[in-house]
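S.,

Sequence below, as promised.
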Amino acid sequence: MGDVLRAFDQRQDKTIDVGDVGLVFRAMGIQIGESDLSDLVNELVKEPGGMAIHIQHLAPRLLAAVDEKRWRPVDGATLELAFLSLEALDNPALFHPEQQQGLAIQQPLLTRERLEHYMQNMGEPLTAHEMRDMLAHMAVGKSGVVEWRAYVRELLESWGGDEGALAGKD
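The prediction came back faster than expected:
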């Protein structure tokens, strides 16, 4: 945990910028939701209008989250299904074999543009900061198609998770 906190202490003054707190949790394999993150940041910012949280206040919350197994990451199969579902939004026949007869089914491809739209407008929307961070780790081909399977593998590896659900699929 100390290495993660030091990596995000950009000014080396034992503080973490409020915009990076979610990234700190995610670097520790803790998938905290936006509303919980917002509540936590509001509680830990000690100065009105403050833009940083002191590590001594954040560290106990990280330890508690790890000990209590709160906000744990999802497994690879669930992540894969989520991305496949996004692909199916543009091609619903993929998930309805009875509708496939006589239809030209497109190769399921999720473009960066569509991914950004879905991630910012469906469910719990990602912030611009979270969207930039996700896209920074996601390969995008010349045609704009995102390589989400490689991204999921990278996430699972960073969390120490099981990649079995994605094995052999590219």
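DSSP finds eight helices and two strands in the chain.

Coffee later?
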